């Protein structure tokens, strides 16, 4: 940090100019115009065999949105013992944000966060409170008997099979946008118009449950092990925006709407051993599942916060993963808590998307229509005490984590996974909750092209 301040010692990694740093800096070489910033840190030395991937960086802007910064280089500064230069690439959605707080994490240890100006200097989040330095008082005490170090509880292991329980294992890191507590974030200035466009008097609808029209009601998933055979995926519509196969899709993988469905036909597969997610849209098994045809496909490392490339779709219109946003029986009933945002649909969306979405699916440009990725939350004042226990779990999640616009469909339809143990009567009580009971969480940069 600069003396007597929280501002970082940082320069543009190419021009060596100081802040404020432009979000993009066209150069005479290469096509990637995203700005690289060189931060200078102390007490950061990579171990033998490590590279920049051992270090992560994150920025927080003035409305508490967090952005992962790609760490591209970690090198010692010549003739400056103990000083290390860390080159980070600014996030695609980090525009003219003003001051942001940037922190670096290495081997689970996070640095103090320093202030950097992006686009302009000023504003931004408040400084982190200083860490007090305790003054130890020597006390003559007998040498205590060492206390055995408790053995940490093993990480939960998901079951195998269709609709299997994850036993509380969390999808994506705790700082992932899906797992972000948004209960105290500001309300978007355009919230009234955005909510009205979805329907002030339209009730919530559980787009999941037991059985509908002869098939399991909801978006199913299956959990497999590392031994699951890989099969070829033939992409029939969005191959240029799909992650190539093969995928570990069982021949008996459940299909949304059943094997004869003419709907979205999503297929979701979780590899519990590699902790990866595979998702297909409009999927059909070929030769009894020896291969699959699908409009599109996406894979996600569930240990990573990486997003899909900007502008890319996924098995979801918003370019988001589907599975993390589902209401699941194992969470709502077995665990008694949902610790992530949910997924919902709107009839009319805008030709735009906001972080963490990566894709839009509309030609409408009305700013009062919701962009993909827009997050809403149930108002804190809404009384949930009269609802069935598992529905209260859903509503608590809607207050703390909210739900994101993920696809075009019926207004206020919440996605979930089918399970024969759901009570459809209990889920129908969600219909008494209207659009007017929600508010839009303040959005960051809106991408329109």
Folded structure, characterized:
The protein has 449 residues and is mainly beta. Helices cover 7% and strands 26% of the residues. The chain is built from four helices and 26 strands. It has helices at residues 191-198, 329-335, 389-400, 424-428, and strands at 10-12, 36-42, 55-60, 66-76, 83-89, 98-106, 109-110, 114-118, 161-162, 205-207, 211-212, 215-216, 222-224, 232-235, 267-271, 276-281, 284-286, 291-294, 296-301, 342-346, 353-354, 375-378, 403-408, 413-415, 438-440, 446-447. The strands form six sheets. Strands 1, 2, 3, 4, 5, 6, 7 and 8 form an eight-stranded antiparallel sheet that branches. A six-stranded mixed sheet has the order 10-24-20-23-22-25. It has a five-stranded mixed sheet with strand order 9-13-15-16-19, with no helix packed on it. Strand 11 and strand 12 form a beta hairpin. It is globular.
Topology (elements, then pairings):
Elements: E1 10-12, E2 36-42, E3 55-60, E4 66-76, E5 83-89, E6 98-106, E7 109-110, E8 114-118, E9 161-162, H1 191-198, E10 205-207, E11 211-212, E12 215-216, E13 222-224, E14 232-235, E15 267-271, E16 276-281, E17 284-286, E18 291-294, E19 296-301, H2 329-335, E20 342-346, E21 353-354, E22 375-378, H3 389-400, E23 403-408, E24 413-415, H4 424-428, E25 438-440, E26 446-447
Parallel strand pairs: 10-24, 13-15, 14-18, 20-23
Antiparallel strand pairs: 1-2, 2-5, 3-4, 3-6, 4-5, 6-7, 6-8, 9-13, 11-12, 15-16, 16-19, 17-18, 20-24, 21-26, 22-23, 22-25
